[in-house]
Specification:
α1 runs parallel beside α3, α4 crosses α12 and α9 packs across α11. The two termini are about 15 Å apart. This protein has two domains: about 110 residues, ATPase, nucleotide binding domain (Nucleotidyltransferase, domain 5, 2-Layer Sandwich), CATH 3.30.420; about 180 residues, Exopolyphosphatase. Domain 2 (Nucleotidyltransferase, domain 5, 2-Layer Sandwich), CATH 3.30.420.150. β2 and β3 form a beta hairpin. The radius of gyration is 19 Å and the shape is globular. By secondary structure, it is an alpha/beta fold. About 45% of the residues lie in helices and about 25% in strands.
């Protein structure tokens, strides 16, 4: 059976088309993402603006055409933070239902974290050691503590990059004072996570897709053949800490115009990549983590994991 899985995020709408075979085997046929910036201009007001709805509908139409081209027999669509918190989300969902005949499931933050964990599990990264998994989104960030056997703790925080940009409107380039202010803001809003983290011995951060794929791509472009290399997993790479530090310094000191010239940086991440790098730098320092693994698998693959195991 061929399935199409749609992850309707705050910044991008993502598609995965896969063929499910017997014995829990699968083959990924297509992965693509289309920027929509669903939260632009409205995420702080808990609404999806009309222009964002139009971008979302257009992106869905393209993804569904792609899925049909691969012969997808089943379509699963789930929506996350921006649609989850918008007062007018039902208008968007109804529009999609009427135009395409598909039903969008709005998933909770807990459910989102669980699916991200399962996606990372499908990537064959986890073992008996406890790790911290982070998915950086436009509307929310998911933090999961777990190992190959189970989730030990999880939570979704409405502190995504689009929300931070809308709230703080950082300078170009971002200032040291703004970095400190945003770092303090993050720390103040995640006390339960830091309390939980202290109960575990964790040295590794696993970054799920999105911004972490961009970090890895930018490092490879900057210094091909060194630094970020394929880890001993099929769907992951290890990000060298010194390389990440160098990239972080480049990003926080850059203007938007300069970032447009940076290789490996997609156009739809030109603004969000700076606060994303800031979040990772903040967590690595505060938690004294010593390793970063970048996972290619996240929420979409978590849904695939459930399909394979049902």
């Amino acid at each position: 059976m061929r399935v199409a899985i749609l992850d309707l995020g705050t910044n991008t709408f993502n598609l995965l088309v896969a063929e499910i075979k017997g014995n829990k085997e699968y083959k990924i046929l297509c992965k693509s993402e289309i920027p929509v910036k669903l939260g632009k201009g409205g995420i702080d007001k808990k609404e999806i603006r009309p222009d964002a709805i139009t971008r979302g509908i257009n992106a869905l139409e393209k993804h569904l055409q792609t899925a049909a081209g691969f012969g997808a027999e089943k379509i699963v669509a789930c929506a996350t933070s921006a649609i989850r918190t918008a007062r007018n989300s039902e208008h968007f969902i109804k529009s999609v239902r009427e135009k395409f005949g598909i039903e969008i499931e709005i998933i909770s933050g807990d459910r989102e974290a669980e699916l991200i964990y399962l996606g990372v599990k499908l990537a064959m990264i986890l073992d008996h050691e406890k790790t911290l998994i982070l998915d950086i989104g436009g509307g929310s960030n998911e933090l999961i503590i777990g190992n190959a056997d189970q989730i030990l703790w999880k939570k979704s925080y409405p502190l995504g990059m689009a929300r931070l940009i809308e709230k703080f409107k950082p300078s170009d380039p971002i200032t040291i004072e703004e970095i400190e202010f945003i770092s303090n803001y993050l720390e103040e809003r995640m006390p339960d996570f830091f309390e939980e983290f202290r109960k575990h011995r964790i040295t590794t951060l696993i970054g799920a897709s999105g911004s972490f794929e961009t970090f890895a791509a930018m490092i490879r472009e900057e210094d091909p053949g060194t630094g970020t290399e394929k880890a001993s997993f099929p769907e992951a790479a290890e990000i060298d800490l010194a390389d990440f530090e160098n990239l972080y310094q480049r990003l926080i000191n850059s203007t938007l115009k300069e970032r447009k010239q940076m290789k490996g940086l997609e156009a739809h991440r030109l603004e969000t990549i700076v606060p994303a790098s800031l979040l990772v730098k903040f967590l690595m320092g505060k938690l004294k983590l010593r390793r970063i693994i970048q996972s290619n698998f996240a929420l979409k693959e978590g849904i695939l994991f459930e399909m394979l195991n049902n």
